[in-house]
Amino acid sequence: MAVLAAVFCQGAAAQEAAGTDAAIRDATGIPPRTAPAEYQAHAQAGAVTVAAEFTRHSVATLQATLSTEDYVVVEVGLFGAPATRIKLSHEDFSLRINGKRFPLQAQPYGLVFNSLKDPEWAPPVPKGEKSKTGISTGGNGESDAGNPPPVVHMPFELVRVMQQRVQKAALPEGERALPVGGLIFFEYHGKPTGIHTIELTYDGSAGKAVLPLRP
Predict the structure, then answer these.
(1) What's the CATH code of the domain at 72?
(2) Residue 16 included in any domain
(3) Residue 15: inside a domain, yes or no?
(4) Is 142 among the domain residues?
(5) CB atoms inside a 10 Å sphere around CB 40
(6) For residue range 64-115, what is the model confidence (pLDDT) as tens digits?
(7) Which of 105, 157, 175, 206 has the fewest CB atoms within 10 Å of its CB?
(8) Does 162 map to a domain?
(9) Cα separation of 167 and 173, whole Å?
(10) At what angle do helices 2-25 and 156-169 cross, to 10 degrees?
(11) C-alpha torsion sign, points 84, 32, 176, 70
């Protein structure tokens, strides 16, 4: 009986993991806005209208707004006549910042995972450490002055949830029906205040369009 129970538990865990992985693979992006005019900019690429908005280092998923210091994010929406289908890829997009000669190429969303942060999450206060108000949170009251604070990592379960949210919000790839929306990511470590001009280029199956965005 114990062996059967163990096999059943392993099977259930495998099914749950498979279901989670399947949900992650089923990336749907984020719902496009009602019209292209609701974005910062829009332009025509053949029969398709490409719209976009620069969100700096913010990663706005459906459930929460996350952040990344190593990438900047653009929310895009593509619109067309009913039943229009186009082939999409993050490789269709590039971003020119401050008129640089070589634009940044969009990167796969998975590369963003290592730098993701949840602004709403804070590590637990270690036992015995005093709060900012000077009130002890427990322990023996001895001072830890001079000792570096322990490194506290976000629990894996929460990290996994963040990754799932970003994967769901990323622009879907492959042949897609319009309208469609999602996030695309560009590696950029600088501060947004250092960005003076920004230009998104779409060069894909529908044609080519250049969109000046607001920093």
Answers:
(1) 2.60.40
(2) no
(3) no
(4) yes
(5) 17
(6) 999 999 999 999 999 999 989 999 999 999 999 999 999 999 999 999 999 9
(7) 157
(8) yes
(9) 11
(10) 40
(11) positive
Please identify which residue in the block is written with the tokens 């865990």.
Answer: 13
| Tally of domains within the chain | 1
Domain that holds residue 46: 28-123+133-213
Beta strand extents in 118-190 (DSSP E only): 174-177, 180-187
Helix then strand then coil, % of the chain, to nearest 5 = 25, 35, 40
Q: What's the pTM value of the predicted model, to 2 decimals?
A: 0.78
Q: Give Cα separations from 153 to 111, 150, 157, 170 (angstroms).
A: 19, 10, 11, 25
Q: Order the strands of the 48-54 sheet from edge to edge.
A: 41-45, 48-54, 71-79, 180-187
Q: What is the DSSP secondary-structure string of 36-89?
A: GGGSSEEEEETTEEEEEEE-TTEEE-SS-EEEESSEEEEEEEEE-STT-EEEE-
Structure token pair of residue 142: 């001895």
Residues 6+ apart with CB under 8 A from 81: 47, 178
User: Token pair of 67, please?
Assistant: 């952040």
- pLDDT, tens digit, 9 for 90 and up, residues 114-148: 999 999 988 877 665 554 444 333 344 444 556 77
